[in-house]
Amino acid sequence: MGEESGIAMASEDRNLTQKIAKILNETRTSYATHNRKLKELATIRSKLSSSPESDEEEDSSSSSSSVRRFSSVFFKTLTPLFVAAQRRTAAAERVVRFVAEFACLRCNSSDGDSDCDEFLEEFLKFLMAGSVAANRNARFRACQIISEIILRLPDEVEVADELWDDVIDCMMLRVRDKVPVIRTFAVRSLSRFVNDPENSDILDLLLEVLPLEHNPEVRKTIVLSLPPSNATTQAIIDCTLDVNESVRKAAYSVLTNKVPLQSLSIKLRTTILKRGLADRAVNVSTECLKLMKDQWLSNCCQGDPIEFLKYLDVETYESVAESALEVLLSEGLIMPTDDKSIQQYILSADGEARDESSCSASSIQLMEPEIALYWRIICRKLHISAQVKGSDAATAMGAEAAVYAAEASDANDLLERILPASVSDYVDLVKAHIEAGPNHHFASRQLLLLGTMLDFSDAMLHKTASAFVQELLHRPFEQELDEDGNSIVIGDGINLGGDKDWANAVSKLAKKVHAAPGEYEEVILVVVEELARPCRERTADFLQWMHMLSLTSLLLENGKSVHSLQGKAIEPEEILHALLLPGAKHTHLDVQRIAIKCLGLFGLLEKKPSEELVRQLRAAFCRSPPPISIMACKALVDLGMWHSPTEVDKALGEDLLSQFEDESIDCAPIDLSNDEEDMNFKMLDLLYAGLESDDWRAFTESSEHESVKATVGEGFAKLLLLGEKYPSLPASFYPSVLGKLIALYFSEESKEQLRFKQCLSVFFEHYASLSEKHKGYVSKAFVPLIRSMWPGIDGNCKSSSYVVSNQRKRAVQASRFIIQMMQTPLYKKEARGEPESQFDKSPEDSVQPLLNFTEDGLAIRIAIEMLSFKEKKTAAEKAYVAALCKILALLHLKPSEQNVIKLMKNLLSQLANSVCSEKELLKDVNPILEHLTPLDVCPSEKLTQDQANSIFETLGVSYNLEITATTTVPQTPAPCSKRPPQSRRRVSIEETSSDEEEEVASPPPSALMNRSHRASKAAALAKITASRVKMSNVDEDDEEEEGSSDVTAEDSDESDE
């Protein structure tokens, strides 16, 4: 009976397996069959649970065993989906979805629900076992099905807490799986539990792995899984800077759907908009627009743009608010209604809006900053639209021109309805806001910019506006008193009104009002001459000096040349000698700073910089406090780039030029505290001294944390980039300054100077790729830079082991950084132009300059540097040489440069001989030698002394390399010759015919080095072919062989030439 029941049970299992397999196969075709197949599979499970055996026993354990039996057969049938190494095909994805739906299926009866719950528990246990399998596909399918089940499972399903804990632990383990797709489904599985306070460890895990994740799909899934909270908001916003477009879009989607506007700080709101609206990907910017339009503007602000601007703090983040308004206007989401305009803020005496026909006095209602910005952007949009449509109407014809003209007319009509009715009303409106105090300073500036859209062609209107401009120009700096009763200027103390934006607004309005040629300069110079009177009489205080100099700075910034200032109220020479130079020597530091700025601007307008101006800037740079030194440094750099450094030096007089016969940069320390010594050096020497000085590390009080050294570094970076425009710069200037900038980039003191580091990072990214010459300068800068950075070399002070270790790490980082710059490919424009330029070059310049620009030249420099140390080395020198060996292994030498390969073998052979007693160094040298051996095409052909000296002369290095005929490569496996008898025979023949070979005129050493890559390859092939011919005829006749050898040598020489 037992055997018969077992056979019957096996037969039933086979039938059950076939039914389940048939259903699963049918679900592979389409999702439309899933509902019907779910019912069929649920019927099979219910029939198995209600079998006659279970009815007769009437025991709950029978139903449980039936579910386990069904589960066992179901799992076996499903196993091929886990084992087979298949791709994510559509058929397999349909099966996965069907299985997850079946696991989440619920029945109407209580008995059926218990069977479903039991099957679900068994299935989850089966899947957890698969999630820890060694097979990659098994883990993937298990995590995929678990994630589908968790996301589809209804809330009312009861599952044991212990089982859920096991599932969560298993998925948290899979979050760190090495397969990205497994990590993705593990994160999806955990997304449903991340909001549970009891599972805070899940959120901590996701926040931990998010910045470390390399796969964009996993990062996207994590971002979509994060809940809105104070802990996750910053992480989500950080993902708006992700390198992958889909991740950035997912971050904005989460911000739209989960994060309310009120929960974000003003800084985070503006950061989100600034990044999203400026994103290059259209999908990301569209998602950001959706966030701003649907969530923030419509839901939170009920479509009111003024209310929306209040959430952005327009006074602090004006550019972001302006960009947001422009986007909303371009999308047609906001537009002023008929009952709103600027005119409603200009009220008549009876309290009603004042129109153009009203003659009563006006009273002004002050605007809030958001309203002022809103109307400025609206009016600018309408003004530009009217101009564009008017231009289109002028160029079009017929009906098209009429349409454009109508659109331009509508825009102008709307603009006239919004703007003040008259110029006097506009002036009253601006004056009221200016007199209201600092709290309305922002609104006043917005209203000033509105004046550029008004028409001042009428004489009366022009007179009113001109008087208002005069008031603005005469308006002094705002001030306050400190505890000691001293006056303190409010603002930056440089620009008119203490704010650069305010000065620009005043300048734009003045240019609009005084649009005639020369009228703008004349008006400002009249005010300057008036304000300069007490300054000339020495009765003015520092505030009057600053006011006068700020106006002068505004004039010089907008001037075209010194010639445009001649014939006005005050002559340019008088401005320089009576105002600017005395201001630069004023006792008050703020007056000195703004005067130095004006001197720099004045020098840019001159055809050639004057001597007094240059001397004053040099003196201010050397002997003034950091804020003034920074301003003088900027002025000197600008003058040098505009007029060239040579012209700036010539301004000091002919007698001084005789002291600069040596064009190289003087790297000796310059005592800048000496009143006379600094004048004995050129401008570049002076700036370089400021770059090297250790005493000038003080920062200014500005928010940018500027320093003198950072300012000089930025100036030198500009000069290096534009060096081709200054042919008079000495050749040694480039590698010296470049090395110093790299050293500053990796120094400790530059960590806090974020702006300076950002500037240098952009500079280094492009510098080496712009030109081959730049790569040559990088190559020349390598050895002096790394030698100066390495502790214990050239008298570098020694310190603790911790400090020495950090210094070595920085030196290694700098060396690898330089190698990366050398290996960076040139931009396509330079690469396309290279063959033509090389074709036009003479034979002497076609190869030798290239060696100086490539990695081959750098390799020779490094090898010579390693040989410069004696056999007995200190610990620092050993570490230095070992580091250079590792750097040398990173270089890619060209097999076509055979002379370079042979020279490197000679140099490294000598190095190997010198370090033969030092096993660690020898281990680093031998692999490089073994790598060079197969690159040598003709090992029997030795490098001559003249060829080596020619290479050294090309690189500009001095090294006495003695090459003998018996030079061999020590401890390096030499390649075995394929024909040893013939090679020995050839050597004897060459010895016997040496007298004849001496009579043959050999080419000069330079000719051997001045052939192109293609000529080198042709020469090598010719020599190999000729040697084979000689070997085949070696047994015929010795005389004939000698003749053929001479012919071969002549052919080789000719090919070399």
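[next item in queue]
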Amino acid sequence: MTVEQNVLQQHSQKHQQTLLNQLREVTGTTDVQLLQQALQVSNGDLVEAVAFLTEKNAKVPQQDEATYYQTAQITNDRYISVGSQADTNVIDLTGDDKDDLQRAIALSLEESNRAFRETGITDEEQAISRVLEASIAENKASLKRTHTEVWSDSPNPHERKRMENCPVGLKNVGNTCWFSAVIQSLFNLLEFQRLVLHYSPPARMQDLPRNQKEHRNLPFMQELRHLFSLLVGSKRKYVDPSGAVEILKDAFKSSESQQDVSEFTHKLLDWLEDAFQIKAEEDREGEKPKNPMVELFYGRFLAVGVLEGKKFENTEMFGQYPLQVNGFKDLHECLEAAMIEGEIESLHSAENSAKSGQEHWFTELPPVLTFELSRFEFNQALGRPEKIHNKLEFPSMLYMDRYMDRNREITRIKREEIRRLKEHLTVLQQRLERYLSYGSGPKRFPLADVLQYAMEFASSKPVCTSPVEDIDTTAPPGGTIAQLPPPASAGEQPDACVSAEGSGSGLQASQQQQQRVSIHKPFTQSRVPPDLPMHPAPRHITEEELRVLESCLHRWRSEVENDTRDLQASISRIHRTIELMYSDKSMMQVPYRLHAVLVHEGQANAGHYWAYIYDRHHQRWMKYNDIAVTKSSWEELVRDSFGGYRNASAYCLMYIDDKKPFLIQEFDKETGQMLSGLDKLPPDLKVFVEADNKLFEREMEEWDALQARKLQQEKLALAAAAAAAAAASVAVQPMSTEPCSPDNTAPQHDPEYMEQQSPSGDSKHLQEDTERAISKAAAEHDEKSPEALLNTAMKVEYTRLLRLAQEDTPPERDYRLQHVIVFFIHNEAPKKIVERTLLMQFADRNLGFDERCKSIMKVARAKLELIKPDEVNMEEYEMWHQDYRIFRETSVFLLIGLELFMKKSFVEALMYLIYAYQYNKELLAKGPYRGHDEELIAHYRRECLLKLNEYAAALFETGEEAKVNTGLSIMNDLVVPCLPLLLVDEMEEKDMVAVEDMRNRWCSYLGQEMEPNLQEKLTDFLPKLLDCSTEIKSFHEPPKLPSYSTLELFERFGRVMTSLTMGRTPADGR
């Protein structure tokens, strides 16, 4: 076959597939054979083909799907898979006029064909361009967003710096998570990566006809090379793909058709195939060109079948292989169903039959085998698409031997054996069901239990009393008056009757018994015979009858149990046999390893995309979620990809041939040497990446210089303020006669919580503690020198604080808030740090006015001056006091947040609880006693977000413009920016469940009727809510904290904790 014939054949196949897709979309018919028959009858005329199908399916209502594309419109065109059609040529399809339907279909096809003839661009290409254009618009709009929006970059470039050997992410430039998932999956195919990086445009581009494809494909390839080179060697944590998206947008004209994300992958491979085809034809003039894209992603299968009694065989090429999900439990079941279409009995018999059907057998599998999982279907009754959330399992290693043409005969034998086993299995399961659900009524029970119950009934003590004779219906409803027993009937046995003697004592005893056995008086107060059993029993049964019955029931129950066990064992053996049917070595010669899983979370018309990709070098799974690239696991992949759990499930599986390691190995094809980093890049791309890295380094240097200037300005401002305060202090205080060294001024500055400016607040409280310690020391040693008194007083104070630190106190009495040294003791601070801090307490200038206190203060200050720099590490000293300052700030954040939460001021409480958790987490990372109970703070942070979500959703449900805007503002400004904080630690299951609950609440609105403006707002908001990135972006500034004295903070914190305990507000089970 010549090159021209090959190209023509491929074009013919693509054109036929396009016609089939159009017919399927317009008519809603999914039967491929029926669609092909319609095209054959009409000789390729779409209008006649549609007429043929609508005549054939006249009983099937066609209005639902047709009207869907007119009624299921969402005016916001910026969201994936959501489109609207504004057309002046509107035909009313609400009536029963069949001509109107035919005219509408004809008009649709005419418009589609005219557009294709004029531009050479298909509807599906236009559909993709629509979303790309919306993405660019979104990206431009993102430049105007405030810092609370989810797409904004951090102003600090160091936060955007790539960690060593960590993969590079892709920035979401406006609803382009689908682009990121696909591109990252392809980029991590190292053979594909090499092909793109080393692609060079044709040398004679000027001589080539500048057609539509070249205008699109060649610039796109160059931009893709740039993007891939940045993913290889950039120093940025993530890169911006806007250049590639811009070219894709410019390649097509805007369309208002509904866009399918899977079409992007199809078209991307088509564009790359065209670009490589141009290069291949230039490099191999006179020879049949080999297209590396075709060799990498495309395979062939043989279609063997019967059409109206005539056998046929056709070889067809395939790329992404589509699989139906609904009705199947695992990937092999999907493949088995996809490989057989229609009734195939006639394929294996020599008889000519009118039945039609076909089998697919792979003759050549591509190195990269991609399966499309069809998780969306159109609900004719509701008139909208719906997502299939069913669970579908798939293996990490897939053996394709059973689907290969060379194994056709053995596979048919095994399939027949499996079919026979499944038929037998069905019979056994039906038999087992009869044993486990026995009975003829609506309620059924296991037969073994029924026999056991019958045996228990027969073995019960026989009685002669009727179950209704001892109930006196004349008793009042309350049953408070005792009634005389009814007279014994003539047929009753004397020993079974109840005596009525002694109406006084007998009735009293009867009442006491009735009070004790309340189960026997459901309606009235009735007399219970003492020998009446608690359950029914036979009235008359002889010993012989009982013996025979027990013997039979025992034997029958044993037989039933044995039969049940045999059936269960047989069913297990058949299941095991089916599972191992293809486990012999001859059927495990074509192994394919799972390379990537593309996941969608959300509903049919809204959602978020990310990818799990296997890192063969480090033997682990990685999660690529836009800018966030994190380590993952098979367990997380299973949870998010199999479906049936939450709204997330896989929609595309990418397997690679396990016998072709070059697909995922980094090496130079010419030299065979292993390459990494910039060494993988050709010279032109290496220059491009190095230039971008220099720009980023310059950005970081400019940021550092800016921060240094700001820090210097702050220091100068603080120095000026300190000088002004000192001047004011000198002006109001009397001249001191004490000599003072100016060199010792700086070291004497106390931490802010120990400042002693006036005898009030913290100062007064701390001063009183110090004076008590001095008084106690003086009482013990009245004649001691000031230095000895100081040493004794310090010991007394330390002993008091040590006793407080050693007490096992509840949260409402946290003595760490009373004194910094209690905090130090809890966290085992160095002895020198504790001693200096205690000296600072006794060196207070406001320590009292008697001579004893003043002398001790002077000695303490002198000791401080004598401490040499090498004796106490001042950096370490400042670090410990800084930790205590953060601990106090965390306590204030938590205190105010909990107070506001209990007042139901959730909007105001949120930021306090958020920062309380973040600061507390940093403290606990240094030691378990440096912060507060993390679970308690996490509980109220989570509850606050849930309350705000409920409140915002309630406002949205009102439908009133002002309330809707308020609700969405709460979500965008408060809730959504906080979600990454809950998702960053995936071990916190309760946080994960809370996020899922919030998302599900908003996703539930997708299936509801609402005004177009509400639908637009919802589709604009959902991508932000469903973004699964754990990247912490720019955030609100922490709230300004009021100043509390030590005593006030201790008491107020205690009151809040006590109120939580008294109110029994749970904190994760507390």
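[queue empty]
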